[in-house]
């Protein structure tokens, strides 16, 4: 793209004199003159000399020099984006929703190329964002670039209706306007209406560019009793995706790989223990940096542990008709149910020992005593108590109720009653059940009435059509007491067999574990927006941060969609917060058909512009020097052969020196660095881990081996130095007796040369612990996990012996501690070692199995390093499954055994120690 308007006049003034001067530079060559053989004529000298003809190649060189100078003054620029320069008023529209975030930098580079091209052509340019409604004002290039640099992707999909109106106004104000739309290619956000506005605007030209990236998104996250699941959406040709489950500190708790097949929406399931799933704070698509690729989980998403207790022996006689059966069916989809074992003397105390979040009492009276005090403490400390009325509770005097009850209750309908069964009234806006449909099919034939004490209305969550309470609640301490004034079976009401009953229990379960507000406080939530004020919000790239000034509070029951006023994120305070998702559960993601709309879209080739003035000036300088040398040579004042020889020799010397220096640096520098590292490793024994390339995994490996090193220093006579990370492709492995290799499925396979180096290390006595860290995702008889498949691919190139699950009598289980197995963050995975030859039949049983050498390979899936790792204060960094300090201690003991086994080999299997081992075992 060139602009010759400025230098045209200058070219006309200097081109001809410059060329004439260049032609005159060539020194004259004397023409041969024949003098007459007379003395006078011999003394005569010619008055003028005619120059010889300039060679054509020298003329071409000088013309090229002049052309380079002229073009350099024109300021030529090469634009890789392929955008044609135009001096017409240009409006650059940039989609700035979350769908543009993954390729945001390339979009900015493409827009910058367009702005620079218009500015060089001398035309006005304006920048507009899809989320804006203000009219774009055309200006110069720097002003447009300033606005472009300040743009950031939004965490929602903006509606393009407002910007479409501004485009039409811009085109009407500038008849020769040129519209450039850098689109995200997504149909959502009224793309069809925006295209109509572009076509009807009357602009002189409309250009559409799309980035070659199809966004992916998450929707409808659910954490129920079965698994943690979420919908994965795509609009491109991606065959698969990986969804990571992360806790509040950003640590990966679990992951799931999904295969789209031919679908655009698939369900990903992450199967983890409930304790780990309740630690998950958000889900994220691996490699997709956008708000749409993040699904948030709040307190309502945690799986609650519910303890249920029935009223008496009748429940056991007819279990399918008991209140517990109805409660179990209603709570099972979203909670873990705990019931007392048969024959337990005090089922309430037994279930409280399992630390439930919710306790449900179906027509159970609580008399003063130890049980009553235990339940009171449970509520005071934050537990939720749900009680259901019945014949026993109607005549009991119980203090763990939200309201005072009348004796016997009342019967609605039947031969002895004048009243008809009552239906439900609509839920108040202050009720947690607000938003649920009050089905008219639900009727109540009998209920326990509440005394009309002051404050009864504030404690009422649900009413019958005559205004009498159906559900009451009271906050007590940190916990909550909820009372259903009907039984939990179908004797008093058909509520327990309705879908509304499930939704009501789900709302109550979501409140468990929070500092639940009282009814009076809830009544102020609608008028006081701070109760649901923004706490932490997502930006367009999917990162949680502080809320901006434009974010507003959400009303109770808000279900989206996310917008500029209500961005996705966490709203509320403390533990009582709710999550607003980027996508609603029913939202879809689809690509817009530009061809069907009558427009064509080109791929945006973003790239910085290259200013050609520098290369042209360098060429002109080189041509000028070459011309000067040639002129001197033609005049006979320059000896080319000696100069050429000297120049060639100097050039060869410089090349040889540069090559020698480069080789010396390439060889000597790494050797000196490696020599120092190897010297340190040789002087001090150290544990080492293989650098995986994943910074998070490598940090866990480092912290885990540091903790194991501290334990070895404190408990054994082995005093290793600080652990180090090694790269098998570059570092010498012989100095490290034990390598811990965490498997990362996304890492590339090492080259054949590295695999051969690892094989040599194992054959020379080194031991490698391969940790796939996938014990929870392994399935017996199922397909291998990504980590297991990666390890299988690696071991194809390793010369490894047959393996077996570690026998209980293997020497590795008795090198320092007596162990039954090796656990880590998980306890269900198996540990594999080199298979030992069978023992002779006639040999007496021995406490440990003999082995001639140390197993060169140990394979586990229990994530050892995460169980060892702790912070500077000695506090563990990761929760264990199933958990407990005992599991962490045994994980550390297993690590010590592995190190001792590597260092001592079959020391413990020597016959000398059989008697000592038998004495320790008490045999």
TrEMBL record:
Keyword Transmembrane helix among record annotations: yes
Domain of life: Bacteria
Keyword annotations from UniProtKB, A to Z: Membrane, Transmembrane, Transmembrane helix
InterPro entries tied to this protein: Aerotolerance_reg_N, Class_I_gatase-like, Double_TM_dom, DUF4159
A Pfam family per the record: BatA
SUPFAM superfamilies, sorted: Class I glutamine amidotransferase-like (SSF52317)
Transmembrane segments: 6-23, 56-79, 616-636, 643-662
Presence of the UniProt keyword Amino-acid biosynthesis in the record: no
Span of domain DUF4159: 686-903
Aerotolerance regulator N-terminal domain ranges (all copies): 1-76
Record protein name field: DUF4159 domain-containing protein
């Amino acid at each position: 793209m060139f602009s010759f308007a400025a230098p045209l006049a200058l070219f006309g003034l200097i081109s001809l004199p410059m060329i004439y001067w260049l032609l005159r530079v060539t020194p004259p060559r004397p023409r041969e003159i024949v003098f007459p053989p007379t003395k006078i004529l011999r003394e005569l000298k010619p008055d003028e000399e005619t120059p010889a003809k300039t060679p054509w190649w020298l003329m071409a060189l000088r013309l090229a020099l002049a052309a380079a100078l002229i073009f350099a003054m024109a300021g030529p620029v090469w634009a890789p984006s392929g955008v044609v320069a135009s001096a017409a008023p240009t409006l650059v529209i940039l989609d700035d929703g979350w769908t543009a975030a993954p390729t945001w930098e390339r979009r900015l580079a493409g827009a910058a190329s367009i702005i620079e091209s218009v500015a060089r052509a001398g035309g006005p340019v304006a920048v507009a964002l899809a989320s804006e409604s203000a009219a774009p004002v055309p200006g110069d290039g720097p002003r447009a670039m300033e606005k472009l640099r300040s743009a950031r992707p939004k965490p929602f999909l903006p509606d393009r209706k407002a910007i479409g109106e501004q485009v039409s106004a811009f085109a009407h104000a500038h008849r020769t306007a040129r519209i450039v739309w850098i689109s995200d290619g997504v149909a959502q956000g009224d793309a069809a209406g925006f295209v109509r506005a572009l076509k009807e605007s009357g602009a002189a030209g409309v250009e559409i560019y799309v980035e070659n990236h199809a966004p992916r998104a998450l929707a409808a996250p659910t954490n129920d009793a079965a698994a943690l699941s979420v919908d994965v959406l795509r609009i491109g040709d991606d065959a698969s995706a990986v969804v990571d489950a992360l806790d509040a500190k950003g640590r990966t708790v679990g992951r799931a790989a999904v295969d789209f097949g031919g679908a655009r929406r698939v369900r990903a399931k992450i199967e983890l223990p409930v304790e780990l799933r309740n630690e998950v704070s958000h889900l994220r698509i691996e490699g997709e940096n956008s708000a749409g690729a993040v699904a948030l989980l709040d307190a309502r998403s945690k799986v609650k542990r519910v303890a249920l207790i029935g009223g008496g022996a009748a429940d056991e006689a007819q279990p399918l008709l008991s209140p517990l059966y109805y409660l179990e069916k209603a709570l099972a989809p979203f909670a873990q149910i705990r019931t007392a074992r048969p024959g337990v003397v005090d089922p309430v105390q037994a279930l409280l020992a399992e630390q439930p979040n919710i306790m449900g009492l179906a027509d159970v009276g609580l008399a003063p005593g130890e049980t009553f005090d235990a339940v009171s403490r449970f509520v005071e400390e934050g537990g939720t108590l749900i009680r259901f009325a019945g014949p026993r509770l109607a005549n009991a005097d119980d203090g763990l109720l939200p309201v005072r009850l009348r004796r016997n209750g009342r019967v609605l309908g039947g031969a002895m009653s004048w009243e008809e069964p009552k239906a439900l009234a609509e839920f108040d806006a202050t009720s947690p059940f607000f938003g649920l449909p009050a089905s008219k099919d639900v009727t109540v034939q009998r209920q326990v009435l509440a005394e009309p004490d002051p404050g009864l209305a504030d404690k009422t969550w649900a009413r019958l059509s005559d205004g009498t309470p159906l559900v009451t609640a009271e906050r007590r301490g940190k916990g909550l007491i909820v009372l259903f004034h009907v039984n939990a079976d179908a004797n008093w009401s058909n509520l327990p067999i309705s879908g509304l009953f499930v939704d009501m229990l789900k709302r109550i379960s979501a409140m468990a574990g929070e500092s639940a507000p009282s009814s009076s406080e809830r009544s102020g939530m609608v008028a006081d927006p701070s109760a649901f004020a923004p706490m932490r919000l997502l930006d367009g790239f999917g990162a949680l941060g502080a809320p901006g000034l434009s974010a507003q509070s959400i009303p109770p029951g808000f279900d989206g969609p996310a917008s500029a006023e209500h961005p996705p994120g966490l709203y509320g305070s403390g533990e009582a917060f709710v999550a607003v998702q980027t996508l609603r559960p029913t939202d879809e993601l689809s690509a817009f058909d530009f061809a069907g709309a009558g427009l064509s879209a080109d791929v945006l080739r973003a790239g910085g512009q290259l200013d050609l003035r520098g290369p042209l000036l360098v060429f002109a300088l080189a041509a000028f020097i070459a011309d000067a040398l040639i002129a001197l040579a033609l005049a006979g004042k320059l000896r080319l052969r000696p100069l050429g020889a000297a120049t060639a020799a100097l050039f060869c010397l410089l090349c040889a020196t540069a090559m020698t220096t480069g080789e010396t640096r390439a060889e000597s520098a790494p050797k000196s660095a490696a020599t120092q590292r190897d010297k340190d490793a040789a002087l001090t024994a150290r544990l080492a881990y293989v650098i995986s390339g994943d910074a998070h995994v490598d940090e866990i490996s480092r912290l885990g081996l540091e903790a194991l090193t501290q334990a070895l220093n404190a408990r054994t006579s082995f005093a290793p130095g600080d652990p180090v990370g090694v790269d098998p492709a570059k570092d010498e492995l012989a100095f490290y007796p034990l390598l811990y290799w965490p498997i990362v499925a996304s890492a590339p396979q090492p080259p054949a040369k590295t695999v051969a180096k690892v094989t040599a290390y194992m054959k020379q006595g080194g031991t490698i612990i391969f940790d796939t860290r996938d014990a929870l995702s392994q399935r017996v008889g199922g397909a291998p996990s990504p980590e297991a498949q990666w390890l299988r691919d690696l071991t194809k190139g390793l010369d490894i012996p047959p393996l077996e699950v570690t026998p209980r009598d293997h020497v590795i289980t008795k090198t320092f501690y007596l162990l039954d197995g090796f656990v880590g963050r998980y306890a269900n995975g198996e540990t594999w070692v080199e298979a030992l030859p069978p023992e002779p039949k006639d040999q007496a049983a021995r406490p440990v199995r003999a082995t001639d050498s140390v197993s060169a390979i140990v394979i586990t899936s229990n994530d050892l390093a995460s169980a060892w790792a702790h912070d500077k204060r000695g506090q563990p960094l990761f929760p264990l499954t199933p958990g407990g300090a005992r599991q962490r201690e045994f994980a550390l003991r297993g690590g010590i055994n592995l190190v001792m086994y590597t260092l001592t080999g079959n020391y413990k299997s020597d016959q000398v120690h059989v008697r000592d081992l038998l004495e320790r075992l008490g045999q």
